[in-house]
Design goal:
A 6-stranded antiparallel beta sheet has the order 22-27-23-24-25-26. A 5-stranded antiparallel beta sheet has the order 6-5-4-1-7. By secondary structure, it is of the alpha+beta class. Helix 5 packs antiparallel against helix 6. The longest helix is centred in the first third of the chain and has 24 residues. A hairpin with a 3-residue loop joins strand 18 and strand 19.
């Protein structure tokens, strides 16, 4: 009897342990908003550790008031309960096993290169201290471009919060700062003042080193490249009158510095003085750096040729709508960044804000606020240039906005895709969440 009683007690203990483990493992949260901030502490004033995307699922370590403490990749932080759905139940012991006092220590070890979670633009060569993924965006859910191995070397172009934008031999993308190791010593035989000479020079002409001088971008949407070749990767697209520091030149390229980042711009698009923009038409009639952009210009021109002398009022409305669409298309592929409103990166409402601003329309930086502006338009009456609005994933509020292009498509800065992209309104997710449209011009 005693042996049987002991066996029964052991079995009950094992079952209890298994139930506790299952309960802890089942505790997860799913992100319900386009972009959610993961913070170091359970406070809206705390530093942002990372940005999480809609639909992402993360393990819950504990809870504190209106916040969940979660594990997101290599990072641990807090998210507001208002913007996630809980799947399972949070273990009462989860918070005790993961005390908040450990968080500062984790943050100190995850960011050895800087004491502030702000953006740095100093370019340095670093090693990788442990295997990690190079991602297309500073998000754990972003596409993995390349796997970086321990002791690989990368060039750090810029840092933002807990992420670093780096260049490998073949790719550029985002990685965690905590995976960066020691700096790579520079070649002492090189004059430190001449380190601006490009390491990869696809232009066979001689590079002329010169004293640093200032130039200005003379056209919209000019490509700022990593090396002096039209096949080189684009660091960003530059707006008209952007100031650049000219470091050196070849026959056709300037090596320039912008906000601490070094790259190349075609000489055709750099002037000694700023360009005067006297009307909106000058901004629309932009030079395009590469011949591939000419197809878009021809397409818009063809639309204008097919219009058979409508009334003066119709010409103004149609041309402005088409112009906004044509302008929006020049930003295809530009990176989605939460709260950004141009000229190179955007979130959804920042994208529409920037586009309409070029035509004298001032909009608030919020999809929920933008839908209250302008004139309401029925879905069947949509025209190119109209703003289209959609509910968030939970269908509780207005959460997304884009620009209608015609033929059932709209262009928008998508947090899910991570860039400016074109999507059919009839796509199930957007079709079921369409809540209205507005005409501002």
């Amino acid at each position: 009897m005693k042996i049987g009683k002991k066996i029964a007690i052991c079995m009950i203990a094992v079952i209890a342990i298994l139930m506790i483990n299952i309960k802890v493992q089942a505790a997860q949260v799913r992100v319900t908003t386009d972009t959610l901030r993961l913070r170091e502490e359970p406070s809206t004033t705390s530093s942002i550790v990372a940005l999480l995307s809609i639909g992402d699922v993360y393990e819950v370590l504990g809870e504190e008031g209106d916040w969940y403490r979660i594990q997101a990749g290599d990072e641990v932080g807090y998210v507001s309960k208002d913007f996630v759905e809980l799947e399972g139940e949070v273990s009462e012991g989860g918070q005790e096993n993961e005390p908040t006092e450990e968080q500062p220590t984790e943050n100190e070890t995850s960011n050895p290169t800087t004491t502030e979670p702000t953006e740095e633009t100093t370019s340095t060569n670093r090693t990788i201290n442990k295997e990690t993924n190079l991602r297309s965006l500073p998000l754990f859910s972003a596409v993995s471009i390349e796997t970086l191995r321990e002791n690989d070397e990368v060039t750090v172009i810029t840092q933002k919060n807990h992420w670093a934008y780096v260049q490998t031999e073949t790719q550029s993308g985002w990685m965690l700062v905590s995976c960066l190791g020691d700096s790579v010593p520079e070649d002492n035989t090189t004059n430190p003042e001449e380190t601006t000479t490009p390491t990869t020079n696809t232009d066979t002409t001689t590079t002329t080193q010169q004293e640093r001088r200032v130039g200005y971008i003379n056209s919209e949407n000019v490509n700022f490249r990593q090396s002096n070749s039209t096949s080189s990767s684009i660091i960003q697209r530059l707006a008209i009158n952007t100031e650049v520091g000219i470091l050196s030149e070849t026959d056709t390229w300037y090596q320039v510095e912008i906000n601490g980042v070094t790259g190349y711009v075609s000489k055709d698009y750099v002037s000694n003085s700023r360009v005067e923009t006297t009307s909106r038409s000058l901004e629309v009639e932009r030079k395009i750096e590469e011949t591939e952009k000419s197809e878009e210009i021809e397409e818009v021109a063809q639309v204008e040729e097919n219009v058979e002398e409508p009334t003066e009022e119709a010409v103004v409305t149609t041309s402005k709508g088409e112009e906004i669409v044509a302008l929006a298309k020049t930003f295809l592929g530009n990176q989605y960044i939460y709260a950004a409103e141009g000229p190179k990166n955007f979130d959804c409402s920042g994208f529409t804000l920037y586009l309409y601003k070029q035509y004298g329309v001032t909009l608030p930086h919020s999809a929920a606020a933008q839908i209250k502006q302008g004139t309401a338009v029925e879905r069947s009456e949509l025209k190119a240039g109209d703003a289209v609005f959609f509910q968030d994933q939970a269908k509780t509020k207005v959460g997304h906005v884009g620009i209608y292009m015609g033929d059932g498509n709209f262009i928008h800065s998508s947090s899910a895709v991570g860039e400016v992209t074109i999507t059919p309104i009839s796509k199930n997710y957007y079709d079921t969440r369409f809540v209205g449209a507005r005409r501002y011009i």
